[in-house]
Design a protein that fits this description.
The chain is an alpha+beta fold. The protein has three helices and nine strands, in the order E-E-E-E-H-E-E-H-E-E-E-H.
């Protein structure tokens, strides 16, 4: 990733209120690392939105996840009444994660998915800093969450982040 080809975009504040994501969830004020039963398996899901609903699931070994099958099962689960894109994350270092996406509309990579991954990693205290390096689709992004300003930014290659 050449710095000359990088840009930083702002995605604003993550939406975590269940009614606004939307996710059917009533146990706590936000759906953070909560269990969802799908196909006889329990997945712990963090639900949030940057304009589109996302569910984030932490896994021990990303290469062992059937992203298509499991993502579709979670993303179309009744707990997501309008559906959701699902991001699977493996923590790979002190401030880095690897992520793979099942996109509900089949569009592929979105900046929102990368930001959902990074934000969930911070919310679930898997990453203790406010800055996360994200490896996604053979690309590296840096997500930063300025909690004081309520702003999440994503830095990466211009051709991937240009709207």
């Amino acid at each position: 990733m050449s710095a000359a080809n990088n840009i930083t975009i702002s995605l604003g504040k993550p939406v975590t209120a269940p009614v606004l994501v939307p996710v059917e969830h009533k146990a706590t004020p936000m759906c953070i690392n909560n269990p969802f039963m799908v196909d006889g398996e329990c997945y712990r899901v963090t639900a949030l939105s940057f304009g589109n609903p996302h569910g984030v699931v932490f896994v021990d070994e990303l290469d062992n996840v059937d992203v298509q099958k499991t993502g579709e099962s979670l993303g179309t689960h009744v707990l997501f009444p309008k559906g959701a894109s699902i991001v699977f994350i493996q923590v790979t270092g002190e401030n880095s994660i690897k992520a793979r996406l099942w996109q509900r509309d089949g569009a592929g990579f979105t900046p929102e998915a990368a930001c959902a991954a990074g934000t969930a990693a911070i919310m679930c205290q898997k990453i203790l800093l406010n800055k996360v390096n994200i490896s996604m689709n053979d690309n590296i992004f840096t997500m930063e969450w300025n909690r004081g300003a309520g702003e999440v930014t994503l830095t990466g290659e211009k051709n991937l982040l240009n709207a």
